[in-house]
Design brief:
The chain has 174 residues and is mostly helical. 41% of the residues lie in helices and 0% in strands. The protein has seven helices and no strands. It has helices spanning 4-33, 67-72, 76-82, 121-124, 132-140, 142-145, 159-170. It is elongated. The N and C termini lie far apart (77 Å).
Length: 174
């Protein structure tokens, strides 16, 4: 077995290796980022701006695809998978509210139209319906479309995911 001196040598070697590793990291930081280091409130990014001929030309605009065209090619099976993000708060059974209102026959239903559910003021006072266009806008940015909504979900940023989800919801009780 090991005696006390051997154990001390092993511990000393480990501490020495750790110290060498930390000093090496500190030295590399000095070489690559300068003596100022991080955390001094200054930006230490290094680089050069290279002018390119023709860089004053405007960038090409992104081609916007009509959402209704996307709906025509939406995949309900994908929408069913995307609905998993909604399951924690919404149920699909008629009258079965969760944290959010049930989504049974939600497409073209009046916004704030589930009796007995405590909607936020902005949704409860709406005279509109959950049309495909309104669902698309709400699902993209709930708090932006309906400021003051109680829904804490940040939204679905991909248009194809929104189209797939709405296509799936159209099959539920519709």
């Amino acid at each position: 077995m090991f005696d006390t001196m051997t154990n001390t040598k092993i511990l000393g070697a480990g501490c020495g290796a750790l110290l060498l590793f930390l000093l090496g990291g500190w030295g590399a930081e000095l070489i690559y980022h300068g003596a100022g280091g991080h955390g001094d409130g200054e930006d230490h990014a290094q680089g050069y701006v290279i002018e390119v001929a023709g860089s004053d030309e405007p960038e090409e605009e992104e081609v916007e695809v009509d959402f209704m065209e996307m709906m025509a090619s939406a995949e309900m099976s994908s929408g069913e998978k995307i609905f998993n993000k909604c399951k924690a708060c919404h149920k699909l059974e008629d009258g079965a509210n969760g944290t959010g209102p049930h989504l049974y026959a939600v497409v073209d239903r009046a916004i704030g139209g589930v009796d007995g559910f405590g909607y936020s003021d902005v949704l409860a006072s709406s005279d509109e319906a959950w049309t495909i266009e309104n669902l698309q806008a709400f699902l993209e940015d709930p708090k932006g479309w309906a400021p003051g909504t109680k829904m804490s979900f940040s939204g679905l940023k991909k248009a194809d995911e929104r189209a797939d989800l709405i296509a799936y919801l159209q099959t539920i009780g519709g």
